[in-house]
Records
---
Amino acid sequence: QVQLVESGGGLVQPGGSLRLSCAASGFTFSMYGMNWYRQAPGKERELVAAITRVAGSTRYADSVLGRFTASRDNAKNTVYLQMNSLKPEDTAVYYCNTAVVVGRGVVDYWGQGTQVTVSS
């Protein structure tokens, strides 16, 4: 079955960096775009970054543009989110997501999330 497992979260000071990883299994990873979302307490889940299947194209939320970089290694079935110049408002649970064709439909899959806390 499809599994997405995030790692790399933690506590970091403002201005610091973290790299999140999402290891995927159970589907043909190279055939699907991947997304990073985040959800802060009391707020809706928001799309942070998206990367196409061949990693030729990425897009970002305005709030992270220039600070976050999504990448992927199709040989390792892993997608990454490099986060630099972190701010307290980046504090959230970060989720990996993809939508996979299953039969005649498409199913959204989510990882369990990894907590990122930016605080001094």
---
Amino acid sequence: QVQLVESGGGLVQPGGSLRLSCAASGNIFDLVIMAWYRQAPGKQRELVARILYDGTTNYADSVKGRFTISGDKAKNMFWLHANNLKPDDTAIYYCNAEVQTARGLVPVDYWGHGTQVTVSS
């Protein structure tokens, strides 16, 4: 089994910054894809940012230039650095990873329980 645990959420003023962390533990051979999603009240969960197996990063248009995703596979951790936060960034942020538990096995999708980010003055 694999567990993902987020930390770093909270209340921040518009224009402020946060760093969200995701710690993965358990039977991990490789974090193939590392990603952050968010879900605002009344809206569907959406992809915020992800790192693919080859290091390529993708970002939602709404966060490009403000958010940066990074990861350290040796530590089984990844982060979302969020700068110039806006009220529209208010949401529950979830970390997600496609995890290979052994060489040659198909990666399996895992989710954290989420961390609340509220941007308000």
---
Amino acid sequence: QVQLVESGGGSALAGGSLRLSCAPSGFTVSTFSMGWFRQAPGKEREAIAAIEKYGRTSYADSVKGRFTISRDNGKNILYLQMDSLQPEDTAKYYCAARCTAMVAGTCEYTYWGQGTQVTVSS
């Protein structure tokens, strides 16, 4: 069955960087639109980055200019490069795949990973 496994989370200091990876099984990353979400305790899940199957990317204002979504089609991995990290970036990060519809300007995805924790301290 289709699975998405996130990795690369951990701790970083404010101003530091981390790169998250999402390794799917059951499909090729270039086949579907994919995205990254995050959720902190007590907060709503936030869509932060997306890449369409043809390569166009988009970002939430909260991360634009600091985070970069990309994919390595050869390795079949989706990445989220996070630079200039801030404490407010602390959250559990999830990758998702196959945007099937747009609701209130955000993709609704079919497949989801289990998430990886990112903690940023000042």
